[in-house]
Amino acid sequence: MRVTFCTDLDKNVVVANCEKRGWIQVGPEDDWNIYWAGTLTCRSLFSVDSGYRMNDNQIINHFPNHYEISRKDLLVKNIKRYRRDLEKEGNVLAERGDSKYLHLDFIPVTFVLPADYNMFVEEYRKAPQSTWIMKPCGRSQGSGIFLINKLSKLKRWSREANKNPLQPQLAKESYVISRYIDNPLLIGGKKFDLRLYVLVTSFRPLKAYQFRLGFCRFCTVKYDSSVAELDNMYVHLTNVSVQKHGEEYNALHGGKLSVQNLRLHLESTRGKEVTERLFDQISWLIIHSLKAVQPVIATDRHCFECYGYDIIIDNKLKPWLIEVNASPSLTSTTANDRILKHKLLDNIFNIVVPPSGYPDVRWNKIVSTEALGDFELLIDEDILNHGNHDDTASLDRHSNRSANFYRWK
Q1: pLDDT for the residue numbered 239
Q2: pLDDT tens-digit profile of 377-401?
Q3: At 116, which helix (H) or strand (E)?
Q4: Which keywords does the record carry (predicted)?
Q5: Residue 197 and residue 214 in contact, taking contact as beta carbons nearer than 8 Å
Q6: 136 cis-preceded (ω within 30 degrees of 0)
Q7: Residue 305, beta-bridge partner list
Q8: CA 45, CA 58: separation in Å to the nearest integer?
């Protein structure tokens, strides 16, 4: 059957993957089966005003309100609500010790400004001179981020934002302010974070897969936590969009290291057991960040989504969730990047399109091991809810991550 695709992103990786399958590119006004869209396009398509209704043979790469996890303020709000709800239920996952969550402590202490200003000040005064990082809620690629270690600096920024007639949006824009992870794990003296890809094919029931081939993004300048370097974003921000302008940027490797090589480095320096524990904790935080937004995401059987997770590891090998991107960059900065992103798209299409090769939302979304490629199952609530995990065949079809989740649940 003829399969048509549509995209509003000028990315060769999308078009090349679709054309390789023999799919035919059409415009948004034509009859399309698969739409790889930007977030704004998706929002307008799902808006009440558009009146657009998808048929059973159409799928799109975003959920209607994907921003519940990708907007920095909403992610924090949803995780905090998730913890409170579990606490009310008396769930063991919400256990506390020394006022911290023992199992759900995977985001830094964070407040939304200006709404939470008084709560932030109260927290700040417990440890004056501590470093905090300010991020605008609705922006990406490191735009508008800065660090503070004095309350006076925040007050000065607030006054300037309110009186600047050229940028009135600064006064209205909400920010998140988070305790800065000032003890990051360093390799070669440099700070880095992890970019991991997570594919969600359904939120209710939750079905999610993690891509094995993520990468680390490094700063170009050696880490220095001194006050003198507080404004040097080449020391503190790992975003490629920031680092590529630095004098030390190496275009050959793009300041990137594969997750496989990170794993090998950690196994040789810290040991295999603690490395395995770290990666299990990363899977744990991804699962629970998804469960935190599960009640509020408008799940739709026409939708799937590939999220870009940004995670920082501290020097005690504890992972911290920094943010989640609804449109992780498909731009290739190196040859390895291009290979990884082509494989990512190819594997995604293998999972979201039924074995027949023709999109159909009535499909039960049971994916064969062969179709997973470099993805591994993170969680499938269908298996959990129906007790099928005792069935050997089911476990053979799915990843060990599910077995881990039975323990975590």
Answers
A1: 77
A2: 999 998 887 765 443 333 333 344 4
A3: none
A4: ATP-binding, Cell projection, Cilium, Cytoplasm, Cytoskeleton, Ligase, Microtubule, Nucleotide-binding
A5: yes
A6: no
A7: 200
A8: 13
Contact 336, 258 (CB under 8 A): yes
Q: According to the model, what pLDDT value does residue 405 have?
A: 45
Are the beta carbons of 129 and 147 closer than 8 angstroms? no
Residues 290, 115, 117: CA angle, nearest 5 degrees: 110
Q: Copy the structure tokens of residue 259.
A: 């997750």
- Residue located via tokens 């950690």: 266
User: For residues 233 and 230, what is the distance between their CA atoms, to the nearest angstrom?
Assistant: 8
The label of the residue with tokens 């700040």 reads: 124
What does the DSSP 8-state code read for residue 368? P
CA gap 231, 200 in Å, rounded? 37
Torsion, Cα of 231, 120, 124, 324 (10° steps): -50
Q: Which residues of 135-158 are buried (b: 16+ CB within 10 A; e: fewer)?
A: bbbbebebeebbbbbeeeebeebb
Q: Is residue 126 pLDDT above 70, yes or no?
A: yes
Q: Which residues contact 326 (CB under 8 A, 6 or more apart)?
A: 39, 62, 66, 67, 69, 70, 305, 307
Contact status, residue 232 vs residue 257, Cβ threshold 8 Å: no
Give the Cα separation of 299 and 201 in Å (integer).
Answer: 9
